[in-house]
Amino acid sequence: MTSTVHVDSAPVARSGLPERHGSSSTPRSGVRLESIARSFPSAQGARDVLRGLDLDLPSGEILAVVGPSGCGKSTLLRLVAGLDSPTEGLIRIGGTAIRGTDPRTAVAFQEPRLLPWRTLEHNVALGLPRGTGRREGRERVRELLQLVGLEHAATQRPREVSGGMAQRASLARALARSPEVLLLDEPFGALDALTRLRMQDLLLEIHAAEPTTVLVVTHDVEEALYLADRVLLLRSLLEDPAADSIARTLEVPGARPRDRADRSLAELRVELLAGLGVHSPQPAQPAQPVQPAQPAQPIQPAQTTTEISS
Ligand SMILES: Nc1ncnc2c1ncn2[C@@H]1O[C@H](COP(=O)(O)OP(=O)(O)OP(=O)(O)O)[C@@H](O)[C@H]1O
Ligand SMILES: [Mg+2]
């Protein structure tokens, strides 16, 4: 029997989201990548970083992207965020092709990237959609700080709070515009192990309240299997120049919240690690049948004298 390992999240308001944000019936946008390629100039000519990438990310799905360093995970995220353009192919959000940054998407990175001279509430307010009224904005920021358990730290500045708090503020800022697509690039990578687990639970609670389509890049296979509906394993085209970028797409079984100790995920974990070049030791050889114990021989008294034959 497996035991459930659950780490309490930071205090999170489970209710109190306004209807427009809290209704899971709110239509959300899916993401579609059609034959995406991205190359960058290099001394040897154009070098493909991503190639032949086709992907359908249904609305509300959480997709984790893993792959070796340099395989193009951040590049993929930047493309979906509209911060960069593909060399080939098309990206659609909610059916429409994106051209540049899109108000329906929000991005959070490994470092919180908060403005140091602004309070947390002002930093979160920076994520509000343009044209938000002052009162409405203030109310939304208050809700978001409550959602990520930071209402008590609203007037503190980034240097006065812990790394986990700053990261929660960054997440709140990304959520401020109620994005339909949330893009996270190693969002918890700089946090200590316990804060990281809490942030994962927080993300899932937020997702349950606001079922945004999420694309999360991570190096942590456990994190991918805990958070995602599917895991996309990318390969490095440097190592495999003729291949397409997607090495595997794995469905993660089991409804969320998952049991962190779920043994049924162990195989997927091994598979993902193998895809990342980390090979688990071969399963131990079946144990040899135990030989029945021999009846104990009577102990011979130690020979203490040497017979000298004459
Ligand atoms: N603007 C750019 N100009 C030239 N090369 C770039 C540019 N952006 C990314 N690259 C190259 O593309 C490759 C993929 O970079 P990317 O940052 O997407 O990798 P990654 O998978 O996110 O790696 P990591 O896991 O280390 O964060 C790298 O070799 C990088 O040098
Ligand atoms: Mg990266």
UniProtKB/TrEMBL annotation:
Pfam families: ABC_tran. PANTHER family: ALIPHATIC SULFONATES IMPORT ATP-BINDING PROTEIN SSUB 2 (PTHR42788:SF19), TAURINE IMPORT ATP-BINDING PROTEIN-RELATED (PTHR42788). This is ABC transporter ATP-binding protein. InterPro entries: AAA+_ATPase, ABC_transporter-like_ATP-bd, ABC_transporter-like_CS, ABC_transporter_ATP-bind, P-loop_NTPase. Residues 31-261 form the ABC transporter domain. GO terms for molecular function: ATP binding. SMART domains: AAA. It comes from Brachybacterium tyrofermentans. CDD domains: ABC_NrtD_SsuB_transporters. Keywords: ATP-binding, Nucleotide-binding, Transport. The keyword Membrane does not apply. Residues 1-31, 278-310 are annotated as: Disordered.
